[in-house]
Automatic annotation (TrEMBL):
Protein name (Swiss-Prot/TrEMBL): HD domain-containing protein
Annotated organism of origin: Christiangramia antarctica
InterPro entries the UniProt entry points to: ATPase_NBD, GppA/Ppx_hydrolase, HD/PDEase_dom, Ppx_GppA_C, Ppx_GppA_N, PyroPPase_GppA_Ppx
Domain Ppx/GppA phosphatase N-terminal: 34-317
Domain Ppx/GppA phosphatase C-terminal span(s) in chain numbering: 334-490
Keywords noted in UniProt: Hydrolase
Length: 524
């Protein structure tokens, strides 16, 4: 008898640990039969292995900090019943003459088997992670991961990597070698820039060849710089920086002020992690160099980093052993993450697709009148797919459960604003319309609130037109007149429930269009 695979149940739980120069990052994920994965838990430990610079030797104190961090990570893995641990060491341990001692002690004292990976492997895995996290498209971009000991540079798009290299330009290494003044002196900056020019000649050549205009930054240094530019508290784990983008002008404005700060002033910044205070400057100077010398126009942040690449690499290697097939239907991380969430929440697919189809038809009719764009159309479609996932928790208040699930599901490829739009539009598909007394709605900017109202107005009508959940409306025609809109619905059976549902939810759309709304039914 053939065994049935339940794609809604994970078949393996693993942990991926990135043993970096500055910090150890661990992520625990459940992997599903189609090769998709969902985060169960995370832990980050700042260890600063190179507190005295990259001297090719780990101090006893640094090794002790690292081992204590691994013990805590191992305890978390055991408590979460992790089946397999992937632990990869990078620059600091890779180069240290006593790195082997640390690896041996990791196994005996912390119960974690550590593997040292090459710089090229590290760069390639980071590229996989970024591509999984960010919607890149055909455009060639420069992916940059600034660590403590090394910096990984990858040039590519969603189809290929044309260049990947790990260079010894990490912030701890550069701070120890070139920074001897506080605030950092002009002479320090000049020496750093001269060193970057020498080391980055090959990167410069490939970037110019492919006319790269966008940098995608991953990991702590790049995230922390973005957090400071955005004015977001770097310690606030509830704030996602994934897809956050800033331009060259915004960076130059930030740089001009930040580079003049001494340690005491940097310590006052809530947006800067305390343990990066002494080593952040070379990273900031490197970003400025890339913008100035490579002609970069925008920097985008990816929260996908080495540990995510480790997981993706594991899934590819273990295909056939643990997984029935890989989830390759959606290469776009936005679409893929939406459908992974839908599957995990046992979505009402027939109803949701039917509502989405009608919602998009309504959108296309009123796109110009409501001053909406193609990005709004995409978010409306996803909101329609997601609007009933709150049933996964319970029927009661399922619209509010949908809001919570969407906001807290780490959807890849979306900005904070886009996630909040989808979450709120799904929330307002039933019951109350958007009101400022609602905290999740009130906290959004005015332009975002306007988009939520318009898209909610459309979704409410579309959902009302499938009130039975049986796709009774076979065809929808929209007669858009000067003073009124008539929705002509052609139904398979009695239309009363759909007419009632549509009219009951039409008030918000009526207000947005400033027109009367009628629904006329033509049963089969």
């Amino acid at each position: 008898m053939e065994q049935t695979i339940d794609n809604n149940q994970p078949n393996k739980r693993i942990a991926a640990i990135d043993l970096g120069t500055n910090s150890f990052h661990a992520v625990i994920v459940d992997i599903y039969p189609d090769g998709s994965f969902r985060t169960v838990d995370k832990l980050k430990e700042m260890v600063i292995l190179a507190e005295k610079g990259m001297e090719n030797h780990l101090s006893e104190e640094a090794m002790d900090r690292g081992l204590e961090a691994l013990k805590r990570i191992r305890f978390l893995c055991d408590s979460q019943q992790v089946e397999e641990i992937l632990a990869y060491a990078t620059s600091a341990i890779r180069e240290a003459e006593n790195g082997g001692d640390f690896i041996q002690r990791s196994l005996y004292e912390a119960g974690v088997k550590v593997q040292v990976i090459s710089g090229k492997m590290e760069a390639e895995m980071i590229g996989l992670a970024v591509r999984h996290s960010i919607a890149i498209g055909d455009e060639m971009v420069l992916m940059v991961d600034i660590g403590g000991g090394s910096v990984e540079f990858i040039v590519g798009n969603d189809k290929e990597f044309v260049y990947s290299k790990s260079l010894k330009l990490g912030v701890a290494r550069m701070a120890a070698r070139f920074v001897d003044a506080d605030p950092v002196s002009k002479e320090n900056i000049k020496k750093l820039e001269q060193h970057f020019e020498k080391e980055l000649s090959a990167v410069s050549e490939i970037v110019k060849k492919h006319k790269v205009k966008t940098v995608i930054g991953s990991s702590g240094t790049m995230e922390n710089i973005a957090a400071m530019i955005a004015g977001k508290n770097a310690s606030d784990t509830m704030i996602s920086l994934n897809e956050y983008t800033y331009g060259a002008k915004a960076f130059q404005k930030f740089y001009k002020k930040f580079i003049q700060l001494d340690k005491s002033k940097r310590l006052e910044l809530k947006t800067l992690e305390e343990k990066r205070v002494d080593i952040i400057n070379p990273g900031v100077i490197l970003v400025k160099y890339l913008l100035d010398e490579f002609g970069i126009e925008n920097v985008k942040i990816s929260e996908g980093a080495l540990r995510d690449g480790m997981i993706i690499d594991f899934i590819k290697k273990e295909k056939g052993k643990y997984f029935s097939k890989l989830n390759i239907e959606f290469k776009d991380p936005r679409k893929r993450s939406i459908h992974e969430l839908l599957r995990k929440c046992n979505w009402l697919e027939d109803h949701s697709r039917h509502v989405a189809k009608m919602a998009l038809q309504i959108f296309d009719e009123f796109k110009s009148e409501l001053k909406l764009n193609e990005n709004d159309r995409e978010l409306l479609e996803y909101s329609a797919f997601l609007h009933d996932i709150g049933y996964y928790i319970s029927y009661s208040r399922h619209h509010k459960h949908a809001l919570y699930i969407i906001k807290n599901s780490e959807l890849r490829g979306f900005t904070d604003d886009e996630v909040n739009i989808m979450a709120n539009v799904a929330r307002y598909h039933r019951n109350s319309t958007p009101k400022k007394r609602h905290k999740a709605y009130k906290s959004q900017s005015k332009p975002v609130r306007k988009r939520i109202k318009k898209l909610s107005a459309i979704l409410r009508v579309a959902d009302g037109l499938d009130r039975s959940h049986f796709q009774n409306v076979q065809k929808l025609e929209i007669d858009n007149q000067v003073e009124k809109v008539v929705f002509n619905i052609y139904t398979e059976s009695d239309p009363e429930l759909e007419v009632w549902g549509g009219m009951r939810k039409a008030k918000l759309l009526k207000k947005q269009l400033n027109k009367k709304i009628e629904i006329k039914a033509f049963p089969n």
